[in-house]
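User: Can you model how S-adenosylmethionine sits in this protein?
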Amino acid sequence: MTLGQRFARLVTTAVVRRPRLWRLFRAPLRGQFERLAPYWDERHGPNHLASYEAALGRIAPPPRRALDLGTGTGDGAVALARRFSDAEVVGLDLAEAMVNEARRKLPRELGGRVTFVRGDAASLPFPDASFDLVAHANAIPFFDELVRVLRPSGWVVFAFSRGAATPIYVPLERLRAELERRGFDGFEEIAAGTGNALLARMR
Ligand SMILES: C[S@@+](CC[C@H](N)C(=O)[O-])C[C@H]1O[C@@H](n2cnc3c(N)ncnc32)[C@H](O)[C@@H]1O
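Assistant: Here's the modeled complex, given as structure tokens:
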């Protein structure tokens, strides 16, 4: 792993253990992703969302509103919109350059249903219970916030493109433990391509 990737892993591990540490890491991590935005799509292969897509394929009935947290250049949000053809989709990212790139790349035919917002997953600019699905691809989880914006019986997805070798990675058993104590069940662990994913549903 590069130094930047090691830093991203360190932040992920620290914030999952102690969410309050995020305020120390927020600015440097944001700076790192602002700089990476122009090259982000060159850094991964065409199937980097294989496990994310596989998890989406198990969700029924389809969500009406879906959120992709840490959307980067927006590929996860586009995958949501293509999979759930009636859903309204929001992609949110901390880095403005990532959001700008996501908006630039958005296929015209999805423009009416997909929006991109700059924001922090630790403090989301959405009302309580406003999404049926909150999805993450290679993104740091902020459990209390995602639970707040999820509707009862809503779904959550965490996907990692290279499994445990992904820089931003949380072991699936750790994710599961955090979700179980917040009232989730229906856990499914999914392997696809080089990645893995966890799917769960709020009771
Ligand atoms: C590893 S990239 C993944 C991007 C995209 N989901 C993908 O898989 O290609 C992580 C993204 O999360 C964003 N990010 C990091 N912390 C965040 C936070 N607290 N809130 C929102 N986005 C965040 C970064 O700016 C970056 O774009």
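A couple of observations from the model: The chain is about 35% helix and 25% strand. Helices lie at 3-17, 22-36, 50-56, 75-83, 96-105, 143-149, 172-180.
User: Helpful, thanks.
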